[in-house]
Every structure is written in C-alpha cells, then in structure tokens.
C-alpha cells in the first residue's frame, strides 16, 4: 500500500516482482495483489484516500511507557486525523480485539508526540474489504495505556 500513488493504477506488477520472484508463484501473487487493490478501491475509505490533503504512510514512532520504548509503524494517517491499519487475512474476534488495542496504542502515541489524538481509526482487512471503525475516544485510549502500564515492567527506582 505504501508504494501506491492513489492517482495512478496500483503498481501490481512491480510489487509482484519484489514479493514473488519465483516465476511459478508470480501469477497467483499478481491475482492476489489485484484483488487487494480492487478491495481498497471499492471500500468506503477510497474517497478519503483520494481527497487527502496529507497522506502519511509507514509513519514510524517511538513511545515510552514505564521506561519501555515501544517502536511501531502506522500504516496510514490521513490529514493527521484518520488512523488506518491494514491487515491481511480473515478477521477473527480474538485477533481483532488485539488489533483494536494496537490502534488505541497508536492513537495514544500520536497524541503524545503531536499533542492531538486522531479523530477516527479504522482496521482495513484487505483480503475481505472489511473496513471497521475502532473506538479511539479519550477514555478508550487511556484504558488501553493503563492496561499496558500494568503489564509492562515497572520503571527502575
């Protein structure tokens, strides 16, 4: 997704060359990449991606909790207010809940770094086209951060 300039057709062939250099795997890879691109273009998110004034992709961050550095990469951030995390595969409830926690952590990290939390967050399952909103209200973010603080090692005295 990070290599796709949304004003142009998706770079399916170039990405397939990188991901699937084995000639026997390439046709299946191209087919899968085309299906993902089509799912993105058919999603409710597509107009927002096209209209974005500022689209940041693969945005790295470092966030410290209890003295533990948490490194991550945000898949996409639209206009500093819409957080998107792309996922492959089918949605499974337990795993989906972990992904929601991940996005709340990302929202908390953005707020810590920029002073402003995003307004919206979405998990976009590329294989199925599902686009699911994640609750990132201040209470949800704080609850996630508090839960992480409880499981992370305590800072040294």
Could you describe the 3D structure shown?
The protein has two domains: 1-42, no CATH class; 53-151, Lambda Exonuclease, Chain A (Alpha-Beta Complex), CATH 3.90.320.10. It is 42% helix and 24% strand. The protein has five helices and five strands. The longest helix has 22 residues, at 93-114. It is globular and about 55 Å long.
Strand content: 15-25%
* Major sheet: arrangement of strands: 1-2-3-4-5
- What is the alpha-carbon Rg in Å? 17 Å
In the CATH scheme, the class of the largest domain would be Alpha Beta
Count of all domains: 2
State the shape: globular
Largest sheet: 5 strands, mixed
Features:
157 residues, alpha+beta, Lambda Exonuclease, Chain A, 2 domains, 5-stranded mixed beta sheet, 5 helices, 5 strands, 24% strand
Helix-strand blueprint:
Layout: H1 12-19, H2 26-41, H3 46-51, E1 55-65, E2 68-78, E3 82-87, H4 93-114, E4 120-125, E5 130-133, H5 138-151
Parallel strand pairs: 3-4
Antiparallel strand pairs: 1-2, 2-3, 4-5
Helix pairs in contact: 1-2, 4-5
Task: Please outline what is shown here.
By secondary structure, the protein is of the alpha+beta class. 42% of the residues lie in helices and 24% in strands.
